[in-house]
Specification:
This protein has 553 residues and is α+β, with helices and mostly antiparallel strands. The protein is 25% helix and 25% strand. It has 14 helices and 27 strands. The strands form 7 sheets. The protein has a 6-stranded mixed beta sheet. Strands 7-6-10-8-9 form a 5-stranded mixed beta sheet. It is elongated. The protein starts with a helix and ends with a helix.
């Protein structure tokens, strides 16, 4: 027990000493760009260092413990030549050795000089080395890295990738040879760690431009263009696009490929049964070129993605995933105002009518004013009236009489308003008013108005409580009669139920919510009128004198 405690204490002191030594290193001799990233390099491990993966190099430090009656502890640093010097044993070259292999070699060398002892070998600090990040990055240059940093870390130190930078053909060179072509996109999208290898001493990470692309459109989770690399297959494309959405019609997937020097587009379908068929009879002859000429062995796609044929892609391929028509479309209408439960209601289009939804909304309240209830069809609002839009750009003075009348009527129109008499529908059960509903319809039932508005040039304009026994003239009298400047001949009644303007003489009955309105007379300029009369009179007298002299010389 005492021996175990001693071992633990000694190793703790050793590790503290190593940490202090590392912290005492001054960064003043490090280039500016690299110094910024010293804290990044090795600052946080993603996991414990793997003895089967980590390769030793100059700058690494090992702690070797020989646990005998008199324990021996040595710190072995890997020299710039890649060697470790073992006291009492000699020099051993370990540069490039995997940590587990180096442990075995050091242990074997020590066991030639010791008997019946326990030997432990630990990596206590990792080296730092230069990494060159070049190409299509925001800040190409040289940075400090460690052997526990990955390619993605080096690119992050150099800032963001340029918009046209490749993520799938990143070249990693050591010396004069390319040791890896990194598909960083596969790591970022699917977490494939082999596509994001660890850095090594002196690595040159080069990010080239994107060379080729393919496109996936339609009912996938991320429709977009993706970088193409040789060997990509149809199943990869669907995976890159995030897989099918729930409404995808994956039984038939359309693919467009450009063939030959002429780059002629050829369309073909990948069927759920596992077949490829041309979209047109004229394309049938091209099908062998699509899958045979390019050496594409057709296999079955992943079961979870659908039972479609899997084949090799080519640059510029376009993949279209169609959606099931009207899949899970929620067809709803809105009912607002004086109903028990206003809100949105799902309808069975082609079956549900106005009364169906009003009943589901709990019926109308006692305060409902059916004369002003409205049924608006939103899809009709979007219908374009090119003639009305044209007239909007023309001054009224330049319009013909017919154009001006049409413009006024269209200006007063309530877009999308459906002709429904809610009073007949709900009080008389008139089925001719019970229209079929469409998605997006809005039914508005306002609150009852028990007054008539008397506005304009009256002595006391305002709202007058409705009384069915009153005539239109009675309401004017209750408003104090006409004002002095009232243009009585232009008195109008605006019907609440239809919004139609009716001349006062034609208004047989006033209903709740109606408005009686009279404008002000146009101003009369006496002096201007007098001058015009004098001018006309003078002209008539002049003509008379001329004629008189001609007849009576």
């Amino acid at each position: 027990m005492e021996r175990t405690r001693l071992l633990s204490l000694v190793f703790a002191l050793l590790l503290l000493a190593e940490g202090a030594a590392g912290q005492s290193t001054s960064p003043t001799d490090v280039p500016t760009a690299a110094r910024i990233n010293v804290a990044k390099a090795g600052a946080a491990l993603e996991a414990a260092v793997s003895g089967s993966e980590y390769r030793l190099g100059p700058g690494d430090s090992l702690a070797v413990g020989v646990w005998a009656p008199e324990p021996l502890i040595h710190r072995l640093g890997v020299s710039v030549e890649g060697n470790v010097i073992i006291p009492g044993v000699g020099e051993l070259h370990v540069d490039g050795d995997v940590l587990d292999v180096a442990r075995q070699r050091i242990r074997s060398a020590l066991m030639r000089h010791f008997r019946n002892v326990e030997i432990t070998i630990s990596l206590v600090s990792v080296r730092k080395f230069q990494v060159h990040v070049l190409g299509q990055v925001e800040h190409p240059g040289t940075y400090l890295g460690t052997a526990v940093d990955r390619i993605s870390s080096a690119i992050a130190w150099a800032g963001e990738l340029a918009p046209n930078a490749s993520q799938r053909r990143i070249l990693v060179s050591s010396g004069d040879s390319v040791r890896a072509q990194v598909d960083l996109f596969a790591f970022l999208r699917r977490g494939i760690s082999d596509s994001n290898p660890y850095l090594r001493d002196g690595d040159v990470v080069y990010v080239p431009f994107i060379r080729d692309r393919f496109v996936v459109r339609g009912a996938v989770n991320e429709p977009a263009g993706f970088e193409y690399v040789p060997g990509d297959r149809f199943s990869d494309a669907i995976s890159f696009a995030g897989g099918f959405t729930s409404e995808a019609f994956s039984d038939t997937l359309e693919v467009v490929r450009y063939l030959g020097v002429e780059r002629l587009p050829v369309r073909f379908y990948a069927l759920a049964g596992g077949d490829l068929i041309p979209a047109r009879e004229s394309d049938r002859a091209h099908l062998p070129r699509i899958v045979g000429r390019f050496g594409s062995e057709i296999t079955r796609g992943p079961a979870e993605a659908g039972s479609y044929p899997d084949f090799e892609l080519k640059p510029d391929d376009l993949i279209f995933v169609r959606a099931i028509p009207e899949y899970r479309i929620k067809r709803m209408v809105e009912i607002a105002g004086e109903v028990q439960y206003p809100g949105f209601y799902v309808i069975n289009e082609g079956h549900d009518r106005i009364l169906d939804v009003i009943q589901r909304a709990g019926g109308v309240t006692p305060e409902a004013f059916l004369l002003e209830a409205r049924h608006v069809r939103r899809e009709a609002i979007t219908l374009e009236d090119r003639e009305f839009e044209r007239l909007k750009t023309i001054p009224a003075a330049d319009m013909t009489d017919d154009e001006y009348e049409y413009f006024k009527l269209r200006s007063r129109e309530n877009p999308g308003l459906m002709v429904v008499d809610f009073q007949k529908l709900l009080e008389e059960n008139d089925e001719t008013q019970n229209l079929l509903l469409r998605h997006g319809d809005v039914i508005t039932i306002p609150k009852r108005r028990d007054f008539v508005s008397v506005l304009g040039m009256f002595q006391a304009p305002g709202n007058i409580i409705y009384d069915h026994s009153l005539t239109p003239r009675d309401y004017i009298d209750r408003a104090g009669g006409y004002a002095e400047k009232a243009d009585k001949g232009k008195t109008r009644v605006i019907k609440a139920s239809t919004g139609v303007w009716v001349s006062f003489d034609d208004a047989e009955e006033i209903e709740p919510g109606d408005t009686i309105w009279v404008p002000e007379k146009g101003e009369t300029h006496f002096w201007e009128t007098f001058k015009e009369v004098v001018a006309v009179t003078t002209q008539i007298l002049t003509m008379y004198l001329i004629v008189d002299r001609a007849v009576n010389p």
